[in-house]
Amino acid sequence: MAEEPCYTYWTVECKTPSCGGLLLAYIGPYDKRRVFFLAQCRPFEVICPECKNGHTYTRNEVTSKNLALEPRGFIPSQSFLEAIRPEAHLEPADT
Asked: What is this structure's pTM?
């Protein structure tokens, strides 16, 4: 019997063919009653640790994924965290 996922992460699929998925950020403990929706996210770039290529991603490419991988020691993508910051979406004020 397969182990049930325990943790939820924001992820994207690497755009290099035959490469895998990339973990962007830890969301929280797995809860089958919750659905995660990324309300806002500007385009961001991530360098894949496997193929070493950098790719730009948009909100439509980000998905939540449930994994048995513990978040202890996990380092989130800083470019993704910047892209989802609410103040990153505000237009600059005219001065």
From this structure: 0.83
